[in-house]
């Protein structure tokens, strides 16, 4: 029987993951099937169990199930434990479910692909929700000079920073506490979805700075347009999507797909 994988979400019809993983499988010669499954909002664990019963070997997990997926795992990677969320499930030979999160590695790899130097960088992260929590450990592992988390709800940013304070120089607060310049600003808020812009000071970017939005789309986000007008180099989250998928693929199949072609194909499709 062909090994089965899927992405769980709700809604899920717009997911690019089947396209990405099918391309990875073709490229690496791995025989597998990858589909998108809309799990019921009230029974994610049941959806995973049914998938396993039907020959499922692993899955990606997206909104809104990453925390629930975390809770059902028998074992977890260190980075998933830190993130409190899981985007990759893997069924072990022993029948136990292993959970990992590849979002942060995806972000860091994409930044490196774009030539962004992280070691020694002054980084500002916007947002303090699940998306940001999920990337902090890999980001801090690159040894930036400092990370400041700014959030609409300042207390959430401060609490999040405190959770990761053992891993590097990291602080948090409200947008009014932001003091630039920064070498890299990462937007991890969901404000882009509603076309809104967090209130940021104009003098945010150091010369040669980059602005990264974890979101992507046919058009640049409001944040990226704002950043570009202030001289930053702008990068959207399409590459992060492809890189996190590649890391999941590696966990499942022990093969590293080449991501450049898939990224280019997705970009073409968006345009
Ligand atoms: P996700 O899983 O995408 O991180 P989340 O956990 O709901 O979703 O977090 C959303 C983040 O976007 C939060 O940091 C939120 O700020 P609050 O903690 O103050 O709610 C931020 N956010 C959402 N809409 C925003 C807006 N219009 N302006 C600024 N920040 C916004």
TrEMBL record:
Biochemical pathway? Metabolic intermediate biosynthesis; chorismate biosynthesis; chorismate from D-erythrose 4-phosphate and phosphoenolpyruvate: step 4/7
Q: Where is the Shikimate dehydrogenase substrate binding N-terminal domain?
A: 7-89
Q: Which InterPro entries match?
A: Aminoacid_DH-like_N_sf, NAD(P)-bd_dom_sf, SDH_C, Shikimate_DH, Shikimate_DH-bd_N, Shikimate_DH_fam, Shikm_DH/Glu-tRNA_Rdtase
Q: List residues of the SDH C-terminal domain.
A: 237-267
Q: Name one GO cellular component term.
A: cytosol
The UniProt annotation places shikimate binding at 15-17, 62, 87, 103, 216, 244
- GO MF, one annotated term: NADP binding
**Catalytic-site annotation from UniProt:** 66
Going by the record, the broad EC class of this enzyme is: oxidoreductase
User: Pfam families this protein is in?
Assistant: SDH_C (PF18317), Shikimate_DH (PF01488), Shikimate_dh_N (PF08501)
Q: Which residues form the Quinate/shikimate 5-dehydrogenase/glutamyl-tRNA reductase domain?
A: 117-192
Name the GO terms of the biological process aspect: amino acid biosynthetic process; aromatic amino acid family biosynthetic process; chorismate biosynthetic process; shikimate metabolic process
Report residues binding NADP(+): 127-131, 151-156, 214, 237
Task: Write down the chemical reaction(s) this protein catalyses.
Answer: shikimate + NADP(+) = 3-dehydroshikimate + NADPH + H(+)
Q: How does it assemble?
A: Homodimer.
PANTHER family documented for this protein:
BIFUNCTIONAL 3-DEHYDROQUINATE DEHYDRATASE_SHIKIMATE DEHYDROGENASE, CHLOROPLASTIC (PTHR21089:SF1), SHIKIMATE DEHYDROGENASE (PTHR21089)
Q: What is this protein called?
A: Shikimate dehydrogenase (NADP(+))
Species for this entry: Billgrantia kenyensis
Q: Which gene encodes it?
A: aroE
């Amino acid at each position: 029987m062909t090994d089965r994988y899927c992405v769980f979400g709700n809604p899920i019809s717009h997911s690019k993951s089947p396209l990405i993983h099918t391309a990875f499988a073709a490229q690496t010669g791995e025989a597998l099937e990858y589909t998108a499954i809309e799990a019921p909002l009230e029974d994610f664990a049941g959806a995973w169990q049914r998938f396993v019963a039907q020959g499922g070997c692993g899955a990606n997990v997206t909104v809104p199930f990453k925390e629930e997926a975390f809770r059902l795992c028998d074992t977890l990677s260190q980075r998933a434990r830190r993130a409190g969320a899981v985007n990759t499930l893997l069924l072990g030979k022993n029948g136990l479910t292993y959970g990992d999160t590849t979002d942060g590695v995806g972000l860091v790899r994409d930044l490196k692909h774009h030539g962004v130097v992280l070691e020694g960088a002054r980084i500002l992260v916007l947002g303090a929700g699940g998306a940001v929590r999920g990337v902090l450990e890999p980001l801090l592992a690159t040894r930036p000079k400092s990370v400041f988390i700014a959030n609409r709800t300042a207390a959430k940013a401060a609490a999040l920073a405190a959770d990761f304070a053992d891993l590097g120089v990291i602080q948090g607060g409200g947008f009014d506490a932001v003091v630039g310049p920064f070498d890299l600003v990462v937007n991890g808020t969901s404000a882009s979805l509603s076309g809104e812009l967090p209130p940021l000071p104009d003098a945010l970017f150091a010369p040669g700075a980059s602005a990264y939005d974890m979101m992507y789309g046919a058009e640049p986000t409001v944040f990226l347009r704002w950043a570009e007008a202030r001289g930053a180099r702008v990068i959207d989250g399409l590459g992060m999507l492809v890189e996190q998928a590649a890391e999941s693929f590696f966990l499942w199949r022990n093969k590293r797909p080449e991501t450049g072609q898939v990224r280019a194909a997705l970009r073409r499709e968006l345009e």
